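TICKET: design request
STATUS: open
ATTACHED STRUCTURE:
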């Protein structure tokens, strides 16, 4: 890091979530009012197509580890991913919202977020190693990053909705504003993260091994070694048990798109003998206020963990939270 990691990483998390949440209400209204999408179609776009790139997270991690660009591990991939997201936001504000385009946008935007997320997580792990070496409390920077992430979501969601409802900016212009915030995030990456070219492992010191075939051969050898190590690690109980826990935690039906549509759709004229609940017709600000309750709870939870709950046994902490949540 060029600047303090305790400043740079939380700032990047804040800017990332701010730029993603600024057009959050506008994006839902785009799907519901302009594209006229039913909740099932929204679920396919947002939940299936939008989550598919996360299945390639291990591939992205291998790219970072095994195939640095001109010796640089972080800034090239991060820069391309952030620019990709910025362009996506610009196009969302400019093009007609067809199903095909929305699927393409969701896939490419999430793929960019995978690249960004892998880099941020790995840099946070490096910070934890530094905290251990310096005898400081472990996880301080990582907890600050999570607090900053959800603070950005809270500010962006409410701020973007209020800008739209008060006619400060148009529904499409909010996407342009999010694109600009992405570019600010890019500036922080380039100014705040030191990424000097590193000598590739196994490469001749005289630079003669810089041909494409040599680079690919070294990358293949390193990736093979990392995958073998990963196969060994995944058999360890301290790895596969948390993975199984996370899988079971997420294994439930998701009604978010149906509920969003119920809140945002305009009430329809009453029809005889039809007793279905009427949509609520919330404004963008009212919709964001509902979402902000959960976001605020996450921020409070992060602060509580950092200050009071850090020394709890994780099994007891998880058991208590699951019971309370149920």
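STATUS: resolved
RESOLUTION: sequence designed for all positions
ATTACHED SEQUENCE:
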């Amino acid at each position: 890091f060029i600047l303090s990691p305790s400043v740079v990483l939380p700032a990047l998390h804040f800017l990332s979530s701010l730029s993603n949440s600024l057009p959050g209400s506008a994006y839902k209204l785009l799907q519901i009012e302009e594209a006229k999408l039913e909740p099932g179609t929204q679920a396919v776009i947002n939940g299936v197509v939008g989550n598919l790139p996360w299945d390639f997270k291990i591939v992205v991690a291998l790219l970072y580890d095994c195939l640095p660009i001109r010796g640089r591990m972080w800034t090239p991939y991060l820069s391309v991913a952030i620019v990709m997201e910025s362009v996506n936001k610009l196009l969302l504000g400019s093009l007609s919202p067809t199903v095909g385009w929305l699927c393409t946008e969701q896939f490419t935007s999430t793929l960019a977020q995978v690249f960004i997320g892998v880099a941020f997580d790995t840099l946070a792990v490096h910070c934890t190693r530094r905290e251990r070496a310096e005898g400081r409390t472990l996880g301080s920077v990582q907890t600050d990053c999570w607090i900053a992430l959800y603070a950005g979501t809270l500010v962006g969601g409410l701020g973007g909705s209020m800008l739209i409802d008060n006619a400060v900016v148009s529904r499409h212009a909010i996407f342009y504003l999010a694109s600009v915030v992405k570019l600010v995030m890019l500036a922080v990456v380039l100014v705040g993260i030191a990424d000097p070219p590193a000598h590739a492992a196994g490469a001749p010191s005289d630079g003669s091994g810089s041909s494409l075939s040599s680079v690919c051969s070294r990358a293949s050898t390193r990736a093979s070694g990392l995958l073998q190590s990963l196969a060994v690690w995944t058999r360890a109980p301290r790895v596969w048990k948390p993975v199984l826990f996370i899988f079971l935690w997420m294994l439930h039906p998701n009604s978010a798109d149906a509920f969003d549509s119920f809140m945002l759709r305009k009430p329809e004229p009453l029809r005889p003998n039809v007793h279905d609940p009427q949509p609520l017709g919330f404004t963008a600000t009212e919709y964001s206020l509902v979402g902000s309750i959960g976001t605020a709870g996450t921020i409070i939870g992060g602060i509580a963990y950092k200050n009071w709950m850090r020394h709890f046994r994780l099994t007891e902490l998880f058991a208590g939270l699951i019971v309370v949540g149920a």
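CLOSING REMARK: Residues 204-208 have pLDDT under 50 and may be disordered. The first helix runs from residue 5 to 21.
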